[in-house]
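Supplementary Methods, section 5.1.

A reviewer requested that the exact input to the structure prediction be made available. We therefore reproduce it here, unchanged from the version used in the analyses.
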Amino acid sequence: MAFTNAKWTMALAAVGFSISAPATVARADEPASGDMSNTQHSTPRAIDRSWLYLDDARVADPGAVIGMTSVAYTSVGTNPDPTSAPYRAFAANTAQPGALAALGAEVGVLSRVSLEGLGQMQLGGEGPGVNPGALAGARFQLSPPSWHNVHLAASAGYLRETWTTSPHAVATAAGGADGAWASFAASLDVDRLRLGLTTLGEHVFAPGRDGVDLMVQAGISYRVANGFRAGVEWVGQDLEETFADRAEGGARHFVGPTAALQLLQERLTIVAGPSVGLSNGSPSILGRLAAAYGF
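The structure derived from this sequence is encoded token-by-token as follows.
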């Protein structure tokens, strides 16, 4: 039986639909290449914690967890004053002879707000005995998200001293003291170059201590290649004692090169470097290795 033009049209339309429908369904099941790449890029908890001593000026995203650990070594005998105060709860403290390990985490809880905690203890028996200490606090992102190259962050919280068991230590020989701390961090990215500055102030609630202990850290870092940065960092500790009393052994300064690797789609950052003392009472040799991982 002959087909009319209308019947031919209907038949061709049915065949075309039967061919195109599976292809359409298949394309609907496949995400667009651009969406796939964006999903793959945003799913990993990428971090950029490439400073060795400076505080990072960016806060963890809500729900993100950043695990942090470090090991530091300071040459024994670098603190010439045996009556100086006990060692405080920051791994950047240059008065601690021997090896010191730290372990902590930062958890994003709100947009531009996170909580952090850090504990540290001595490794081995080199130098005077040092009991564990800790700190805890909150971090706040001050710079708006639209600032892609400038980052500002503030932090504050509680500390428990990492204290020495040396009988010569003043004020808290029977145990560590509690205290409060606050810090401000800033960083600026200019193409491959990054500049950073951190200021840290703390007050320990114990007699015979400085009203405020001041530490300043500054650094410069250059992205040599994807996943690798090299730089230099300087740390000044107890700067309030530069022209005042020496309740805690006087001001200390050290500087050294750093190298940072970013691995596993930037979820893991490993940074390390040696440093040398710049002033009387500063450690002659230091070394530190730190790692951070984004969950």
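The chain has two domains: 5-30, 49-294. These observations are discussed further in the main text.
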